[in-house]
Amino acid sequence: MPMRSGIASLTIAAALAAAAPAAAHPHVWVAVRSEVLFTPDGKIKGVRHSWTFDEMYSAFALQGLGKDGKPPSREELAPLAKTNAESLAEFDYFTFAKYQNAKAAFGPPEEVWLEADDKRIVTMHFVLPLQQPLSAQKPFSFQIYDPTYFVAFDLEKQNPVALAAAPAGCSTSVVEPKPLLAIDTQKLNEAFFAKMSPGADFGMKLAARVVVACP
């Protein structure tokens, strides 16, 4: 994947391109908190993500940013936020939704911004709008994962998923992934030692699924 000069080289997408195909195990860790968004008439309209990156990637992303030891401002991080949003499009923003057991498509991200806390840990915020709002009375779910398992996405331990403006009675549940089969564990170990990708489906097998249910 071609990389632009400057701040674009600090994106997740650039890191993925530089590391391929040596993605035997995660190189970037992301703690995820998500919010399912509803329209005024009670339809599901999208998902708001907050992704907090690990210390190493945060340090990598913030090189040269900030002054006097202080973290960079939201304004300083705006170019990186914009480039991240653009470059992650080819990875479907690592967000894979299903509606009535069929793929649900998202549109371009909105409300994209980055922040860095006092410890210079980076969090990316953005909204993924569905291409069209969906009835909340039909099964809707989503997973967040990198198919190559270069980036490890894990839901936050406390309150990982919320609902915004949901109709009364709606709720969410998190379905944890099943333990890997022995043959999958073997593939993962072999990939680690060979410094190769364990397979395009490993990220999905290791990802929790968020399920939205409404009466």
Q: What features would you highlight for this structure?
A:
single chain; 215 residues; alpha+beta; six-stranded mixed β-sheet; 5 helices; globular; disordered N terminus
Walk me through what this model shows:
With 215 residues, the protein is of the alpha+beta class. The protein has one domain (6-213). 21% of the residues lie in helices and 35% in strands. It has five helices and eleven strands; from the N terminus they run H-E-E-H-H-E-E-E-E-E-E-E-E-H-H-E. It has helices at 12-19, 55-61, 74-87, 182-194, 202-205, and strands at 28-38, 43-53, 95-99, 102-104, 110-116, 122-135, 140-144, 151-155, 161-164, 171-175, 209-213. Strands 1, 2, 5, 6, 8 and 9 form a six-stranded mixed sheet that branches. The longest helix is centred in the middle third of the chain and has 14 residues, at 74-87. 30% of the residues are buried. The model is unreliable at 1-10, 19-24 and 181-200 (pLDDT under 50).
What secondary-structure arrangement, pairings included, does this model have?
Layout: H1 12-19, E1 28-38, E2 43-53, H2 55-61, H3 74-87, E3 95-99, E4 102-104, E5 110-116, E6 122-135, E7 140-144, E8 151-155, E9 161-164, E10 171-175, H4 182-194, H5 202-205, E11 209-213
Parallel strand pairs: 1-8, 1-9
Antiparallel strand pairs: 1-2, 2-6, 3-4, 3-7, 5-6, 7-11, 10-11
